[in-house]
């Protein structure tokens, strides 16, 4: 899922400082699951922002609504009536959701209420970890299902750096070295031979280096 | 252009003992500081290895190595993949050869968040093994990363870094084999403070016959203060600075002298380890200490 984290109440207050009538929009998909931008979190953020404005003596008229997915127009269009009444929108979706709403309502200011972080998983309660950078050319098969592009701080494709230890990454003592995980995993599935040959430089064209990407799948077009 | 690598390449190819030292490019806008540094480095060195922004933003390694080459010193240019993509690396390698630099040390580099500039984005377009292989193809076939031909081909020896303390040994050797297969002519190790762990690694290297395929040059680092030793002990990049080294420095009335003595002892011990082809003296920015280590360990 896409993992995001909330902006502080001070940041939210500053984002909408010039507006008196604002719509907070939550998203019912990824950011609900990661406890950042679902109905519950938007309610809490709304209450806190109203309080902050009240303390400043600048009361805020704030409406809140959460839609199923902010990244699909089919759901965004349902916001039209509420958007018409508001001066500005704060989207509690991921960065894609914020931009999708902005594109749908070109005459309204749309602000991001979250910091979108990464593609990851729920590691344990209240802990999410990054697993995928979306490089566009998945190499997981040759690394036993552990991605060095994402999980090695130096994106090394041919083995660990000199700072690697069996306990942790050189950069973060709380994070295991991806290469130790790759080694252990390939060893356990008896595929260490996958590490024998030199992996050539990665072609980054399918990744983000050519600018924003687009996928067109004609078989699904009507 | 005639390269200035004669001394270093002769030492590597002849199989004789190799002696090198590290130099940190001065953080200076003029060439005079580099020339002063050249005067501090012992003339008996086979090469000076010029570091590429290891811990802080320094002067340009390429410029420093070129100035040293102009002063008649064999210089090895360190190139980290942290700061440049394959375009810049290949271009700089060609430039280095044109400026009389005869060798390149290929590294991934300490992660920028560890101190060089934590706010900076790392490039990491390619890794150090891919750089080694790419430059080997450039020197041997004249073809670079973009497959364009080069005339004349650059004359560059290629080096890589070996990590004696990385475990498990199977993973360590796997990476070492790749560095050799990529075309490394020499390997510089991390600084050695823990000799038993180093010899365990060297035993495994010899058992695999790898020391016959590449010149392994063991590094020593003169610790200059207890504080510096403690900082390095927290980091893995320079090799583990163990409790014994910390204890010895903390008892010393002259920590700098003790640090130099420890480096010299390590160098003398390493010289006796079968398979070690030479000694590299890391400087940490204290280039003048190399001469003292050489004298104490009778390396020259």
Order of helices and strands of chain B: HEHEHEHEHEHEHEHHHEH
Contiguous helical run count of chain B: 11
Give me the secondary-structure category of chain A: alpha/beta
Averaged pLDDT of chain B, please? 94
CATH architecture label of the largest domain in chain A: 3-Layer(aba) Sandwich
What CATH calls the topology of the largest domain in chain A is: Rossmann fold
Shape of chain B: globular
The total beta strand count of chain A reads 7
| Tally of individual domains of chain B | 1
The CA-CA distance between the termini of chain A, in Å, is 28 Å
Q: What is the multimeric organization of the chains shown?
A: heterodimer
Q: Specify the CATH architecture of chain B.
A: Alpha-Beta Barrel
Task: Offer a few descriptive terms.
heterodimer; A: 222 residues; alpha/beta; 2 domains; three-stranded antiparallel β-sheet; 8 helices; elongated; B: 300 residues; TIM Barrel; 11 helices; disordered N terminus
Question: If you had to describe this structure to a student in words, what would you say it looks like?
Answer:
The complex is a heterodimer of chains A (222) and B (300). Chain A is α/β, with parallel strands linked by helices and 222 residues long. Chain A has two domains: 2-118, Rossmann fold (3-Layer(aba) Sandwich); 135-196, no CATH class. Helix content of chain A is 28%, strand content 19%. Chain A has eight helices and seven strands, in the order βαβααβααβαβββαα. Chain A has helices at residues 9-15, 30-33, 39-55, 73-76, 80-85, 95-104, 148-151, 178-188, and strands at residues 2-6, 21-27, 61-67, 88-91, 110-112, 114-124, 127-132. In chain A, the strands form two sheets. Chain A has a four-stranded parallel sheet, sandwiched between helices. In chain A, strands 1-6-7 form a three-stranded antiparallel sheet. In chain A, α1 (9-15) packs across α3 (39-55). Chain A is elongated and about 65 Å long. With 300 residues, chain B is of the alpha/beta class. Chain B is 42% helix and 15% strand. Chain B has eleven helices and eight strands. In chain B, β4, α5 and β5 (157-162) form a beta-alpha-beta unit. Chains A and B meet through α8 of A and α5 and α6 of B.
């Amino acid at each position: 899922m896409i993992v995001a984290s909330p902006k502080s109440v001070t940041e939210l207050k500053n984002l909408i400082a010039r507006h008196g009538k604002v719509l907070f929009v939550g998203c019912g998909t990824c950011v609900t699951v990661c406890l950042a931008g679902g109905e519950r979190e938007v309610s809490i953020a709304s209450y806190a922002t109203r309080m902050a404005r009240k303390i400043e003596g600048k009361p805020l008229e704030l409406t809140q609504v959460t839609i199923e997915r902010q990244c699909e127009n089919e759901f965004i269009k349902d916001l039209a009536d509420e958007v018409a009444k508001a001066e500005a929108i704060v989207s509690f979706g991921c960065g894609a959701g914020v931009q999708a709403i902005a594109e749908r309502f070109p005459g309204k200011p749309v602000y991001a209420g979250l910091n979108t972080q990464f593609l990851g998983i729920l590691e344990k309660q209240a802990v999410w970890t990054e697993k995928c950078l979306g490089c566009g050319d998945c190499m997981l098969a040759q690394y036993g299902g552990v991605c060095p592009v994402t999980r090695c701080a130096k994106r090394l494709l041919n083995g660990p750096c000199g700072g690697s230890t069996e306990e942790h990454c050189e950069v973060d003592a709380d994070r295991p070295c991806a290469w130790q995980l790759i080694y252990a995993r390939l060893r356990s599935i008896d595929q260490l031979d996958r590490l024998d040959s030199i992996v050539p430089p990665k072609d980054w064209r399918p990744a983000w280096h050519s600018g924003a990407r687009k996928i067109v799948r004609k078989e699904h077009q009507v | 252009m005639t390269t200035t690598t004669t001394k270093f390449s002769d030492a590597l190819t002849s199989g004789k003992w190799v002696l090198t030292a590290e130099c940190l490019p001065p953080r200076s806008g003029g060439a005079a500081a580099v020339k002063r540094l050249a005067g501090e480095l012992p003339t008996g060195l086979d090469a000076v290895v010029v570091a590429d922004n290891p811990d802080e933003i320094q002067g340009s390694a390429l410029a420093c190595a070129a100035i040293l080459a102009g002063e008649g010193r064999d210089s090895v240019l360190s190139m980290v993949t942290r700061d440049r993509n394959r375009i810049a690396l290949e271009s700089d390698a060609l430039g280095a050869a044109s400026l009389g630099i005869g060798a390149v040390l290929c590294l991934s580099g300490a992660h920028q968040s560890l101190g060089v500039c934590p706010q900076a984005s790392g490039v990491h377009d390619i890794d150090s093994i891919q750089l080694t292989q790419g430059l080997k193809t450039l020197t041997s076939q004249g073809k670079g990363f973009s497959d364009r031909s080069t005339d004349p081909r650059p004359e560059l020896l290629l080096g890589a870094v070996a990590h004696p303390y990385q475990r498990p040994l199977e993973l360590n050797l796997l990476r070492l084999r790749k560095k050799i297969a990529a075309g490394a002519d020499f390997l510089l190790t991390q600084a050695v403070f823990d000799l038993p762990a180093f010899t365990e690694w060297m035993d495994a290297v010899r058992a695999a016959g790898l020391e016959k395929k590449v010149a392994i040059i063991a590094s020593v680092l003169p610790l200059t203060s207890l504080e510096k030793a403690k900082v390095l002990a927290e980091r893995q990049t320079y090799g583990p600075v163990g409790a014994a080294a910390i204890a010895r420095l903390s008892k010393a009335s002259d920590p700098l002298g003790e640090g130099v003595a420890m480096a010299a002892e390590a160098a003398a011990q390493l010289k006796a380890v079968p398979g070690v082809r030479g000694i590299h003296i890391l400087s940490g920015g204290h280039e003048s200490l190399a001469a003292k280590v050489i004298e104490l360990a009778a390396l020259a």
